[in-house]
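User: What would this chain look like folded?
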Amino acid sequence: MRALAVIEAVLILWIIVLLGSLMGTFMSEGLIALVFKLAEGKGVILTLLLIIATITDMWRDKKRDRLIQKGKLEPNQLF
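Assistant: Here's the prediction, encoded as structure tokens.
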């Protein structure tokens, strides 16, 4: 499960870097350049990464709840 947490952290960091890149484009080149950058695929990548991170987080929460219900994990314990 820790590998999944590392992958999720990397995904979130990549999302932050992508958002920083888009903000840099907006600040230096303006709104039109940002629209073109989003149109060439940055928006799709950002959306897919956010969806993957959300689904992964939801799956981890369900898995944690199941482990707590089975008694294999304490409510205040991390897994």
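Residues 31-70 form the longest helix (40 residues). If you want, I can go into more detail on any region.
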